[in-house]
Structure formats: structure tokens, C-alpha cells
Automatic annotation (TrEMBL):
<dbReference type="InterPro" id="IPR032580">
    <property type="entry name" value="SatD"/>
</dbReference>
<protein>
    <submittedName>
        <fullName>SatD family (SatD)</fullName>
    </submittedName>
</protein>
<dbReference type="Pfam" id="PF16264">
    <property type="entry name" value="SatD"/>
</dbReference>
């Protein structure tokens, strides 16, 4: 079982190309050594990650793009089997790719920027409600909030005082930015997602 994230950049034509470098760097970070990602059609991308990392990865990519105000990102998460593995991600096939494409295609109709699709209707319904609630916070991240979420996700073992030292901000401003971003609640959603995913896989 794998996870495929299909996405595109909202408002890419209205801003400088700095978002492209940020996207490439972010994709390299989340894919690790696997390099299982592609950018195509200028502002669209596809990425393979471990299923349990889907929500965290989506939040990280969103933070990396929202640093480039007013850019944002739409993403469809698909979890399922991999049937034909090719050297190029876009040439591979399987349920994960079909689900990711379907989740991505549903975004405009659902008027949301993030959705998930798996083989389980009940799982999808439950997690998509959590995602919609999280988007109330994530869609409104400002540049500073996005920067702090990005930094916190990159250094999730560090204390806020250490994040402050890295960012050159005061601890209170880091704390305030993460509070404004609802970072704790989003990480709680990530924890519930991982738990529910594990339960679904074990069924």
C-alpha cells in the first residue's frame, strides 16, 4: 500500500517563481532519498509518500507554498495498491494513483483544497470531515504562521525556545504564530488519522 499526492499551485501566475524553488525543496525533503516526485505542466506535481505520513506531508507542503503569499496549493491524497511501478511516477499505475486523481478532481466541486480517497468509504468520510475543519486554519495561514509551521514540522523534536533561536524570533512570537496556525490541533488530527489508518489496514 502506498500514498500518492497529486497537487497544483493556486495563483502561481500571479506571483514570482520563488514558489517553484520552494516546492522543489519541499518535495525533496518529504520524499527523502527516494526522489519519488515529479513536477509537470509547470505548476502541477505528484509525490509518493508512506501512507501514515500523508497528512503531515500535506500540511508541510501547504506551509512551504503559503510562505509565497498569495500562493496556495490544492492536493488530492490517494491511498491504495501499486500495480505497475515505472521509473517515472506519472507512468506508474494502481489504485493509489486512481484514488489520488479522484480526490484531486473532487476538490473544485467540494470547494476545498485538500481531500483523501481510499477503498474505505467510512474512513474517507471521517477523515475528510477532519481535513475540512483543519482547512479553516490552514487556508488562512499568513506568511509568518506558514514559516513557523514549516520550521516546526522540519524540527518536530525541538522545543519552541530552540525554534525561536533558529528563526531569529522571540519564543513568544513563535508560540503566538503556532497558536494562530492551530498547529497543536493539526498535529492532533495527524495522530487520529494515523490511528484510524492503522485500524483500517488491520481490518
Amino acid at each position: 500500500m502506498i500514498c500518492i499526492i497529486t497537487g497544483d499551485i493556486i495563483g502561481s501566475r500571479k506571483i514570482k517563481d520563488s514558489w517553484l524553488l520552494n516546492l522543489k525543496t519541499a518535495l525533496k525533503v518529504v520524499s527523502g532519498r527516494s526522489h519519488k516526485w515529479e513536477i509537470y505542466r509547470g505548476d502541477s506535481f505528484q509525490l509518493e509518500v508512506e501512507p501514515e505520513n500523508a497528512i503531515r506531508t500535506a500540511a508541510y507542503l501547504k506551509a512551504c507554498i503559503k510562505v509565497n503569499k498569495p500562493a496556495d496549493v490544492r492536493m488530492g491524497i490517494g491511498i491504495g495498491d501499486l500495480k505497475n511501478k515505472r521509473k517515472k511516477l506519472s507512468e506508474s499505475s494502481g489504485d493509489a494513483f486512481v484514488h489520488s486523481g479522484a480526490a484531486f478532481d473532487s476538490l473544485k466541486q467540494g470547494k476545498v483544497n485538500l481531500a483523501i480517497k481510499t477503498d474505505s468509504v467510512d474512513f474517507d468520510e471521517e477523515i475528510n470531515v477532519l481535513i475540512k475543519l483543519s482547512l479553516i486554519a490552514m487556508d488562512s495561514w499568513g506568511v509568518v504562521a506558514a514559516e513557523m509551521v514549516k520550521l516546526a514540522l522540519e524540527n518536530n523534536d525541538l522545543l519552541q525556545s530552540e525554534l525561536a533561536a533558529i528563526s531569529g524570533r522571540t519564543q513568544s512570537s513563535v508560540s503566538e504564530a503556532l497558536k494562530r496556525a492551530h498547529y497543536t490541533e493539526i498535529m492532533e488530527m495527524d495522530r487520529i488519522y494515523r490511528k484510524k489508518l492503522n485500524q483500517m489496514i488491520l481490518k
